[in-house]
Amino acid sequence: MSRESGRSSHKDQGPQGTQVFSRDEVNQLLQETSDEPSSGSRAELTGVSSAVSGQSFALSTTRLIVGRADNCDLRLEDSSVSSEHARLVKDSAGWRVVNLLSTNGTFVNDRKISSSGISNGDRIRFGRVEFRLYDPDEAASTESGKSSWLPWVAVAVAVAAVAAAVVWVIQ
Question: Distance between CA 171 and CA 117 in Å, rounded?
């Protein structure tokens, strides 16, 4: 079966079920995440697995390479992590993780991915090394969104109480 140019809906499987992508496909995934990056991120990855438990790594730039190689922005000394395992990118839509042809895969919330958006609280695993994303900017916007409903809930409870009192008095 010959491969045509462009993306194929069927991916070849490599060792341990690893999906095999061509360099062009990886470059396409990276291009899809290359919107104008925003700045001033305060997000961090907090170690969950034993190898990095309790350690925090600031996502100080909008593009980081994760892996074992010396040139990686986030170096992980674990044999399950490839030399250049994944890329973390922040764009106008938020954070995204892109697998870079790693041997043992990249996972978001235990789901194997080639490219995926990540949000505050998500678990990101590179091989066997797992982190949780903490993004205070996203957490604050989520909290403010929740608190904007609080006054409406209070009004609804008050209206229900008044209605119940009126029904009780009428009977």
Answer: 56
| Mean of pLDDT values over 7-30 | 60
pTM of this prediction?
Answer: 0.63
Question: What strand order describes the sheet that includes 111-113?
Answer: 56-58, 44-47, 129-134, 123-126, 106-108, 111-113
State the Cα–Cα distance between residues 140 and 106, nearest whole angstrom. 27
Q: Count helices and strands (H / E) in the chain.
A: 3, 13
d(CA 136, CA 121): 10
- Cα separation, 31 vs 131, whole angstroms: 25
Report d(CA 37, CA 95) in Å as an integer. Answer: 10
Q: Residue 148 and residue 140: Cα distance in Å, rounded?
A: 12
DSSP state of 23: H
Residue-wise DSSP of 71-113:
T-SEE---TTS-TT-EEEEEETTEEEEEE-S-SS-EEETTEEE
